[in-house]
Amino acid sequence: MKLAGLQKTSVIDFPDQISAVVFTQGCNFYCPYCHNSQLIPLKLPPGKESMPEKYFFDFLKTRKNLLDGVTITGGEPLLQPDLKEFMLKIKNDYELLLKLDSNAANPKKLKELIEADLIDYLAVDIKFSWANYGKLAPNDLISKIKKSAALIIDSDLDYELRTTVVPGLHDKAEIEKIAQQIEGADKFFIQNFRPINTLDPDLRKQRSFAPSELEEFKITAEKYLENVEIRD
Ligand code: SF4
Predict the structure, then answer these.
(1) Among 22, 28, 29, which residue has the most ligand 1 atoms within 8 Å of its CB, making it the best to mutate?
(2) Average pLDDT over residues 181-204
């Protein structure tokens, strides 16, 4: 595993659980609003080393009684070839719950993890309507993301689908298309954009959406989805 960092305690990443958050290095998307752009390159810059797995597991050994689970985020965790073994170790040796954050571009691997019963909570970004996905992901991944979305919606998993909404990139019509394409999903979160440390420097000057605009998006999404929440 290429581990990029560790947040030792979080009460907000894993719903209803206290979790440690571990960040993986490397992502196959290039979201202009990404806050973790240093995690996008698969290879670390010269002189920078990834966090040894031993450091992470030594930490878990000392803290496991204070934690309910571990959130694995990125970057894109599904790019890590040994993710399954890493998750198995956390589950079997430390008996902790697992939350996985993903961009869903690898349905085969996702299916394997679901079938192995390794995911207690899954959070997947649905970033745009399918027609607009090419703004931040290679075109050959779009059919895979669609496949993952269908797999998740059909599963018994505890999951959320979510969209980070950015002025200039998302509007009511776009939210309507996103909600329509994930009709039947259990939970959908509309997350407000924050202009902090974004991959595209121009977005650092962009505003966030106003509460009234987010509420309008929520009402629009509710035409297709039963459970829509705003994260502001
Ligand atoms: S998928 Fe996540 S980590 Fe990857 S570029 Fe987009 S926001 Fe950043």
Answers:
(1) 29
(2) 96
Contact 194, 35 (CB under 8 A): yes
CB–CB of 102/157 below 8 Å? no
Distance 185 CA to ligand 1 centre (A): 22
Domains of the chain: which residue ranges?
A: 3-231
Helical segments of 98-207, H only: 107-115, 142-154, 172-181
Q: Which tokens go with 28?
A: 């196959």
User: Which pTM value belongs to this model?
Assistant: 0.96
* Spacing, Cα 34 to ligand 1 middle (Å): 5
Q: Residues of 51-81 as b/e, b for ≥16 C-beta within 10 angstroms?
A: beeeebeebbeeebeebbbbbbbbbbbbbbe
The band of 46, judged by pLDDT with boundaries at 50, 70 and 90, is confident
For residues 70 and 165, give the distance between their C-alpha atoms in angstroms, rounded to a whole number.
26
3-state class (DSSP) for residue 189: strand
pLDDT at 47: 82
**What's the rounded Cα separation, in Å, for the pair 228 and 177?**
15
CATH of domain 3-231: 3.20.20.70
Ligand 1 pocket residues where CB is under 6 Å: 27, 29-31, 34, 36, 39-40, 74-76, 103
Q: Cα 224 vs. chain centroid, distance in angstroms? A: 22
Q: Give the full edge-to-edge strand order of the sheet including 69-73.
A: 3-10, 19-24, 69-73, 97-102, 121-125, 159-165, 188-192, 228-231
The pLDDT of 106-115, averaged and rounded, is 98
- Rounded to whole angstroms, the Cα distance separating 207 from 27 reads 25
